[in-house]
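agent> Task received from the user: take the single chain below, predict its 3D structure, and emit structure tokens. No templates, no multimer pairing.
agent> Plan: (1) validate residues, (2) run structure prediction, (3) serialize to tokens, (4) report one or two observations.
agent> Step 1 OK, no nonstandard residues flagged.
tool_call: predict_structure(input=
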Amino acid sequence: MTQRHILKTGLAAMAFAAGLPIAAQAEEPFIIGAAIAQSGAIAPYDEGPAKAMEIAIEEINAKGGLLGRPLKIIYSDTKSDIAYGATAAQNVIDQGAGMVVVTCDYDYGGAAASVADGANLIAFSTCAGDPKFGPSGIGPNAFTMSTGSPGQAVALAEWAYNKQGWKTAYILLDTTIAFDASYADAFERRWTELAGADGLLGKDTFGGEDPQIASQITRIKGLAKQPDVIALASFPPGGSSAMRQLRAAGVNQPLLLSESWDGDYWLEAVPNLSDAYLVTYGSVFGNDPRPEVVTFMDKFKAKYDAMPVTSHALTGYSVIQGWSKAVEKAGTFDTDKVRETLETFVDEPLITGPTTFTKETHINMQRDLVLMEVKDGKPGNIVGVVRAEQMPK
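)
tool_result: status=success, residues=393
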């Protein structure tokens, strides 16, 4: 009996004794490297997806692994530092990662994705929403599970105009990240299609972690006609400061917000906030209207004894769900084959919704989104489910 045979027999015996699938335990694990924010301002967006990936991996391993190999996830903290993303990605690749998951944002995850793409590895962002996350901005191996920022902005514009009857709007853009720039651009284009050029009363910008927007507020209040609604293209904590200043100055128009405002971790910064509407992937407050989302949230809570901070957890689960489907269909972990298979997805059923990828586009725009209202300082009031019906030309 050879030494190799003795080793494999011993491994099989240990797997049998532990009650684990023998085929999966006899093979080397396939390593997924997560170069994400585990600390700093971006961590709330990456925490839920990371925990959800663990759930998906456990489920796959319980069924014998993927192509007979167990999956293992390892982490490297980007510390919410854009410049450190490349280092974090290289760190997990050096430890054997065969696929890399990066932060839920084009700016904060792009550097890590570029390193993975350069190593010819699939680079999957859980929810980078800027359309540049993909072949055009990073490379052919970059995919995101997001419903893109343009799709979110269009869904809100259509709901505000068609359902609420608001006819005039103002855009306040935080210039910190690309996500908000593409959100504001899509909102502006779709709103002017709906309301005409005269329906957009203005657009202003701000930036920084604690922005002072007194001059922007003065310009809004000085308009000959006040807008019915304000599209605030920003994210906490800087956006929370801007929002607090708006309300303190008596700018009380409804605010239209992206997925960046999901959850309630930021609400203390804007006491008693009302008339704020956001779109996101699902409700973390136990009242989502879709049974499959409720089932996932129950599963998450059972494992971690708490609901996810934001519903971006759904995108983390879907990254593993979608990527593993592509691996199974391709019959291999080979990057080129997996990429080609992902690019054949047409309305692939995932927990985030039907998912389509093409060779040119590795992001989705027209999926169902939960529309939620913040009222009297309390989040989680579900207004309905919306989706972008017509993307602007």
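agent> Step 4: summary for the user.
Residues 43-62 form the longest helix (20 residues).
agent> Done.
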